[in-house]
Amino acid sequence: MSILSTLLRTVDRVASPSVEAEAHCDIPCGIYDPHAAQVAAHTVVRMNQLIADLPTDDMETYGAKLGRYVSAKEEHAELVKQEIRILWGDYFRPEHVEQYPNLHTLVFTTMKQASAARQNVSMDNAQSLLASVQEISEIFWKTKGAEVRRTPSRQTSGGEIVYPA
What's the CA gap between 30 and 20, in Å, rounded? Predict the structure, then answer.
């Protein structure tokens, strides 16, 4: 390789740095599943449980744990929003909305519930978010022609997970 060639490649890299792109996936791959949204919603519930159970006798430990739990709660509420956005934008089609007329409102409400779960420490918000995600999961699987079943989550958050039957 010549010095000139090396120099030109170096100048090109500096002048045109690469841009990172993230997507699920706009090929489209056709692989969608609401499971990650359900697990994230269960995590929001669990973080609210842990926050409610924090002992206040040691404020230093309380503050450290509270910060970690709130951070995890917010991260997973945002993950719910991301996963639901993917289903809404990439998977659901107009015929699904015709078949399930409440789908648009349900997705909108779920996004707002996830925001509320980020903004507040509220078991009511967390449980409402989980219920909405489960309802979207049921609709998702039904649009694929699958019967659905709810099964105990076996997670420390309790509750159920929606699966295709």
Answer: 23
Tokens at residue 35, please?
């499971």
Q: Look at residues 91, 127, 133, 92 and name the one whose alpha carbon lies nearest to residue 110.
A: 133
Q: How many domains does the chain have?
A: 1
Contact 134, 95 (CB under 8 A): no
**Nearest in space to 124 (alpha carbons), one of 44, 55, 7:** 44
Q: For residue 7, is it within any domain? A: no
- By the 8 A CB rule, do 136 and 107 touch? yes
* C-beta of residue 143 within 8 angstroms of C-beta of residue 133: no
122-160 pLDDT, tens digit each: 999 999 999 999 999 999 999 999 999 999 999 999 999
